[in-house]
Request: fold
Amino acid sequence: MSTFKKLFQQTFVYGLATVLPRMLNVLLIPLYTHVLPKEEYGEVSIIFAYFVFFNVILAYGMETAFFRFYNKMNNSKEVLSTSGWSIVTTSLVFFAGAFLVQDFIAEMANIPVKYIQLVIWILFLDALVIIPFTWLRAAEKPMRFAVIKIINVCINLGLNIFFLLFLADLAGENSVFQSIYVPDFKISYIFISNLVASAVTLLMMLPFYFKIDFSFNSKLWKSMMSYAFPVLIAGLAFSVNEVFDRIMLDYLLPQDIAREEIGAYAACYKLALFMTLFATAFRLGIEPFFFSHADAKNAQETYAIITKYFVVFGSFILVAVIVFIDLLKELLIQNSSYWEAMHIVPLILLANLFLGIYHNLSVWYKITDRTRFGGYISVVGALFTLALNILLIPFISYTGSAIATLVAYGVMMLLSYFYGRKYYPIPYNLKKIGGYLVLSVLFSVFSFYVFRGNYFVGISLLIIFLGTVYVSERKQLIKILQS
Reply:
């Protein structure tokens, strides 16, 4: 099997494991925006923002370190056991410590302690499956990875629908359901659904822990932590770029409107998920490939081609979502009170395309063991995010947050390219990559600001874009498919 065919097959399966569950989660958007007023959805969004931060902290870069050392060392069992016990130990410490200071956390975050307790349990259970999931990817078991991910989301989705749509009616007819029904408990039911799904996932992953022994190589652990620490810093900085705007909006906007504004912003932000899904699926499929082919003779040329086609697909998604944005709006956010934030969607879509390009460009520091540069670049992005949010939110509210996200990811993309050119030159076809980007942005601007709702024009622009790609790429595509 050719290199490209194997890559595309793995990317498809990991894409299935990522896209299908998240597409199922798309159903939660109309559900939440239907049953929750904007201020309550804003509160849920803030809690999920904290989720992102603590997930990064509890993983502390060990996933990426696992990949690097699992492929690098002869004794992969040592990597397995050392990383596994490391995560278990730190997760237990977090669990105990978080419950000791739960009241303080609730006061600082302005979130009821009953939600904090559920969040601690979810974070703990999710941390315990970090290495098992990473091992499935490293061992090239994508189907098992996909099935478990999909089961997790189906349980979460099913329980959300049951609790938020049906439980109240069933409680009036059946004493069993009366015992679990609590009025005005919707936000708690959301996190209880998540908790049950996380618990079932851990149960499915328990056989992994029988594969590891009780050995712990402290020297190996120190080397892994040295590799992982910059990844942790980069992850925290990335979290600032991705979700800290919700938290800053909560602190910088007037208290009487903050969570309503956050609710509208977070709901419309979700319309950019199609770009996020594509970029995430691509990254999950390609990360093991980058490491396993780092020593190949034509590695740099391969990476250049992969990045070009990522830009092609990402640019097409950008234009397609913009063309059909109002249909998606009515389908996913049926409560029109949330639509006030629709103007941020093009900015967030383009920002996520820049982020996806950045992840493709970041191959240079991962395979040359210069992960500290990932930390540096992400910290710079985070500083742009913080500074622009502080400057813009008081004047233009969440529009400032969207602009900050776009600028931060654009800066990170450019920094990664320029540093990568110095330390690990890759022959990117900048003329074509830049051409596809510029064309997709121009078509998106025309579709959203000039011809919005005119599907004849919008679909014509999509066809023109695809025709341009076909004319420019047909020879190389035929060559790849025939290899």
